[in-house]
Amino acid sequence: MVQAAKPLDFLWFIPSSGDGAYLGSDELSRPPDPGYFREIATAADRLGYSGVLIPVGAACEESFVLAANLAAFTEKLKFLVAIRPGTATPAYYARLASTLDRVSNGRLLLNIVVGGSAQELGGDGIFLPHDERYDHAAEFFKVFNELIETGKSNLDGKYIKALNARLQLPPVQQPRPPIYFGGSSEAAIDFSAGLIDKYLTWGEPPAQVAEKIAAVRKAADAHGSQVSFGIRLHFIVRETDEEAWRDADRLISKLSDETIATAQDNFRRNSDSVGQARMVALHNGRRDKLEVSPNLWAGVGLVRTGAGTALVGSPATVARRLREYQELGIDTVIASGYPHLEEAYRVAELLFPALGIEPQPSPLRASFGERQVFGGGGHGGNVRSSV
């Protein structure tokens, strides 16, 4: 059993565009349902995940509204919520962020998502070329950060103009909620330097992640700032490696070659994201070479945009692979699995002990001290163990 000296900070994912048991199929799928999202969030809160990522996009529920709803049903869970510059003013986002941090009692995390689909951004009224989007975002966050940290800002910029902007009510967290960001292009990394608290990478092979971490650290050092690192991964964890690989195959067993081709064509035509291109390059749409690094499986990326890789294996195997990322500097994992409710339990029950992540303490006792084993849930209750 592999254990790190310091356990990873482990977050889960809210699938706000829908969920399912098979990729590329409507069999056993689950539509976007606020009640279902609450089930996942309350399970994550109880199981010991530190937070949840709520995605952003035209196909997703609005992240700030959904986070506010889920905060009312949870106690400790933090919410990693996206800010997409250009869809609203920095002053409006500052009010949203401050209010959400206040109503959740300091449980907000902010995720900068500049956007990688020119088609979707056009629908939001954003028509800037790839690199220029980061110039715009730099001005946006100058105003946003000044407002949320000091309550006032002025800027006469090329993209953003704020005249005597004010924020009356400060957030709970000081000087502001932590800022997360992921972007693989040079423009993205340059933009992040001196601004963010945590840099996120999608689940690439360790050698590629190491190169990215080195580039981000170099940029941060040039600004005299420090940054920590997280990784976004899917998980297929089972009691044995063999069982895990069978379930990886099962996840794409109803996925047709035609569906893969359509998804890959959409990626090429609609995305100018460097990170998305790096994900596609791991498999190039081929389903016969999906283990791109030991236990790192790219099957999810055959049809899913964004994070497209999963760690597959037994708890000991997956913990060993995560330790390799930790040794590179990764201290945070944003995880998911299909379906997200059931897999939240699997990962917590199987993987957390191998990572040294302690379960949430409970005041409830299952017995008066005798060791018991599960008796099937009948009216007679559990059975006293003979060992």
Structure description:
This protein is of the alpha/beta class and 387 residues long. It has a single domain (9-384), classed as Alpha-Beta Barrel (TIM Barrel). It contains twelve helices and 17 strands. The protein has helices spanning 34-47, 63-71, 90-103, 118-123, 130-150, 186-192, 206-222, 241-251, 257-270, 274-281, 315-328, 340-355; strands at 9-13, 19-20, 29-30, 51-54, 78-83, 108-112, 152-156, 161-166, 179-181, 198-202, 228-237, 291-293, 296-297, 310-313, 330-336, 372-373, 383-384. Helix 7 (206-222) links the parallel strand 10 (198-202) and strand 11 (228-237). The chain starts with 8 loop residues before the first strand and ends with a strand. The model has no long low-confidence stretch (mean pLDDT 92). It comes from Arboricoccus pini. It is an enzyme of class 1 (oxidoreductase). Keywords: Flavoprotein, FMN, Monooxygenase, Oxidoreductase.
Q: Helices, strands, pairings?
A:
Blueprint: E1 9-13, E2 19-20, E3 29-30, H1 34-47, E4 51-54, H2 63-71, E5 78-83, H3 90-103, E6 108-112, H4 118-123, H5 130-150, E7 152-156, E8 161-166, E9 179-181, H6 186-192, E10 198-202, H7 206-222, E11 228-237, H8 241-251, H9 257-270, H10 274-281, E12 291-293, E13 296-297, E14 310-313, H11 315-328, E15 330-336, H12 340-355, E16 372-373, E17 383-384
Parallel strand pairs: 1-4, 1-15, 4-5, 5-6, 6-9, 9-10, 10-11, 11-14, 11-15
Antiparallel strand pairs: 2-3, 7-8, 12-13, 13-14, 16-17
Helix pairs in contact: 1-12, 2-3, 3-5, 11-12
